[in-house]
Write a structure and sequence with these properties.
This protein has 318 residues and is α+β, with helices and mostly antiparallel strands. Helices cover 15% and strands 22% of the residues.
């Protein structure tokens, strides 16, 4: 069993990183986001409430199947990122996202579903109970982190909007706004960033829409105000700053498959046996550690997800 029961002390933010470090990285709160730019969940029955001045998410239910591995310090999670909308270097998102204001924000539900439309982020989150989950997350460049996310099971959201029987895939789209995302002024990628999951992947209990980490609202550089987390896939599958979720019959295009189809497929599950064309995937380096470790199939979640791919051609999965 590769997902273990978490100890009660595993996800206490005060045990890992001082609150002052987190608040320094949330500098945008001091520029007016406390009133209009914070993820306000105060009216959410049964869901976590965020205090506008601190970003604290209260009342999230701790998920019993979280990994009990040592957490990556918050200072590392918020300073070493892939978020190309803020720049291509690992340190760019922290530097360039500090004044990003995740307000106004709405999420559009579209496609083959009974209920569609555009929903303010607060209304979108309101009906759900938030869960705190500790996941291993791995980037394709062979580095990894262990992150305590706070989020909503994606399956709960899908059920609420009642996709039709023809919906086989779920597609996601990031905000396109060249004033708020500076890198979108360049042809770095084919903007906006898009991603997708097969319906059974999206419905898997591991998959969540995250709205926070370490018990607080998402930092800008980590995908505020809402992002996907798919822990058995490479990090680029976990699309950030989502504004649209579509249910569709056909496989949706995905940004990195468009950018480099010879390197990045649709499924992109972690496989140590499948080398990237430019580097081996057999080992990884946990951020903050010196030595490398063996990469686990499906990022350590094989018991939970391998059955989704048993009838598929392995060369098309990874």
């Amino acid at each position: 069993m590769l997902i273990r029961i978490a100890k009660p002390s595993d996800v206490k933010t005060s045990d890992i990183t001082p609150k002052t470090i987190f608040m320094n990285r949330r500098a945008f709160l001091a520029t007016g986001a406390a009133g209009a730019g914070a993820l306000a969940l105060g009216a959410v029955p049964a869901a976590a409430a965020m205090l506008a001045q601190t970003g604290k998410l209260d009342g999230a239910v701790k998920w019993p199947l979280s990994t009990d591995e040592e957490l990556t310090p918050l200072s590392k999670i918020t300073s070493y990122n892939n978020f190309y909308e803020f720049g291509t270097d690992k340190g760019d998102p922290e530097r360039n996202a500090r004044f990003f204001n995740p307000r106004p924000w709405s999420v559009e539900i579209a496609g083959a579903a009974k209920t569609t439309g555009s929903f303010d982020i607060d209304e979108f989150v309101k009906p759900y109970t938030l869960e705190e989950r500790v996941y291993r997350m791995r980037c394709v460049e062979a580095w990894s982190m262990v992150i305590p996310w706070v989020g909503i099971p994606l399956a709960d959201i899908i059920k609420r909007y009642e996709p039709t029987g023809s919906a086989k895939f779920v597609a996601f789209e990031t905000l396109f706004d060249t004033k708020r995302f500076p890198e979108q002024n360049r042809a770095t990628l084919d903007w906006p960033y898009v991603e997708g999951l097969r319906m059974d992947e999206a419905m898997n209990p591991l998959t969540i829409l995250a709205v926070g980490l370490y018990g607080d609202a998402l930092p800008n550089q980590n995908g505020a105000p809402i992002r996907v987390v798919v822990p058995w896939k490479y990090g680029y599958k976990s699309i950030k700053s989502i504004v649209k979720i579509s249910f569709q019959e056909t496989m949706p295009p995905t940004t990195w498959n468009i950018q480099a189809p010879q390197e990045y497929g649709f499924y992109s599950n972690v496989s140590p046996a499948a080398s990237h064309p430019r580097w081996s995937q057999a080992t990884e380096r946990r951020i903050g550690e010196f030595f490398r470790r063996d990469t686990l199939p499906y990022n350590g979640y094989a018991e939970e997800v391998a059955s989704l791919y048993t009838k598929m051609d392995p060369s098309k999965i990874f």
